[in-house]
Amino acid sequence: MRPPRLIEVTEIPLDKIDTSNRLRPVSELAVKSLTQSIETQGLMSEIQVRKIKKSGKLRLIAGGHRVAAFRALGRDVIPAKIWDCTDDWADLAEIDDNLAHAELDFLEKAVFLARRKEVYENAYPETKQTSGKELAGKRWNAPDTMSVASFVTSTAEKMGVDERTVRRLVAAGKSLGPREIQELRDAPKGVSLSDLQEIAKCGSPTDRYDICRALGDGSAKSAKEVLSRKKSPGVAVKDPVEKAHGKICDAYARAPKEARRRFVDDHRDELLELLGLEVPTEQTETPETDAEILPFNSKRTG
């Protein structure tokens, strides 16, 4: 990959910056926070742009939120570093800027790392994994393989994480298309690393689409829940009332007759109310009265 060349550091008009085709959408909340910071402390670092030779346009490399914040403040120009560089270098710079400075969730990390692997191996073909004769040739005839770190090793060092985490995130990011990424970004609950791993393992595109759709509209809490529903429709997600009813019926069926009788007696009034029947009121005992004493007349004669 050809090394980049810094052309100059200067202020450039905001309306001259091409901000299309970004890997990550701008967060309104982040822009609002950054706007307040710029107002009080100023811009801490310049944005990065590249000059396109054929058109002379300035295309944004890093600093999308800073550009949006300056526009929100009504500014016309912004400090920038202007580079002459390759497409691969510009893509790596954008990705690494986000990985280093942005608070990314697992989904965004997976998307960025999958793209970083693609760009990195395109820029450094000698780092790609190979097999068969090509692998043997690299073992015995590869003076450059030690000069450039493998993608996983390089990325793990940059992010400060282990290589296993990098591999998991890359596998998840590679399995997602633009539509699935947007659906997961819209999910009311953040997508977990476990969810992304389940998506990456899906052998069926239909399963992957169903998971992304269900997580995106909030009809499922996890990828495993979606897959469980597909295997046993209606079992994975059960109405809580239906679930409680089943437990009561099961306990009543297994109880001996005397236990059932006691249960009904203890809950008689409530059961009658639930059935819409009138609950009998307890009758008070009437006090006993003295009986009238009648004289005894015998009909027997002397």
TrEMBL record:
Q: Name one GO cellular component term.
A: chromosome
Give start and end of each ParB-like N-terminal domain.
Answer: 10-99
Q: Which GO terms describe its biological process?
A: chromosome segregation
Region annotation (Disordered) maps to 279-302
Q: Return the InterPro entries for the record.
A: Chromosome_partition/occlusion, ParB/Sulfiredoxin_sf, ParB_N
Q: Offer one Pfam family short name for this entry.
A: ParB_N
What name does the UniProt record give this protein?
A: Chromosome partitioning protein ParB
